[in-house]
Amino acid sequence: MSITDRDKWNERYRTGAYRARAHPTQLLADWLPTLPRGRALDVACGAGRNALHLAEHGYSVDAVDISSVALDRARASARERGLTVNWFEMDLEATIPTDAHYDLIVMVRYTHPTLVAELVGLLNDGGYLVCEEHLSTTREVVGPTNARFRMRPNELLGLATGLRIIYYHEGLAVDPDGRPAALAQLVGCRGSAGF
User: Fold this and answer.
1) Where are the extended beta strands (E) located within the chain?
2) What is the SS3 assignment for 167?
3) I need a surface site. Which of 11, 26, 35, 115 has the fewest CB within 10 A?
4) Across residues 32-48, what is the average pLDDT?
């Protein structure tokens, strides 16, 4: 991402964007009881809704985003809730500079196709990837209008090489605020462990 992109996201968060979005993504909430505990990474965490949910459920969480304003909001929320999360400001268009490995990686509504394979490589044996992306559609839905920021049908599934697919779905959903969304959703496991 460019400095312009960073400034754009900072301005969105500065003006209150996504403030009402404090709940975790439904995909994560639904699957959390069956996922392994341990170390988690929340990619493009924004104001931290999923990272905070993971910390509340006992995970040791690293969370990354390009927006310093979003991360400041996330830090404040963590303090208010008495939670510990490691927050990192980073440009996700570059390689994630980590030698860490994770039991769970979450990436929600951040479209970066080449990053998916990199994330699979950061999973421990038996680790899970929970990924939700905006899906291309002709319907009136929330999310980006530029097709570049939406997955084509089966694109996410094709990117998940190296994972055993536990769940995959493409279609329309209703966000908690009542607005329709077109989503590709994936839960996949690396290695031999099951659920």
Assistant:
1) 39-43, 60-65, 86-89, 102-108, 123-134, 164-174, 180-189
2) strand
3) 11
4) 95
78 located within any domain: yes
Number of structural domains (the chain) is: 1
Q: Residue 89 domain-assigned?
A: yes
For residue 126, what are its two tokens?
A: 């038996």
Structural domain range at position 125: 3-189
Q: Over the stretch 129-175, which tens digit does the pLDDT of each residue have?
A: 999 999 999 999 988 888 888 999 999 999 999 999 999 999 999 88
- In this structure, is residue 194 part of a structural domain? no
Helix (H) or strand (E) holding 24, with range, is: none
What percentage of residues in the chain have a pLDDT greater than 90? 65
Let me know if residue 195 belongs to a domain.
no
Q: Kindly report the CATH number assigned to the domain that includes residue 133.
A: 3.40.50.150
Give the orientation angle of helix 68-81 with respect to helix 49-56, to 10 degrees.
30
Measured between alpha carbons, how far is 26 from 175 in angstroms, rounded to an integer? Answer: 9
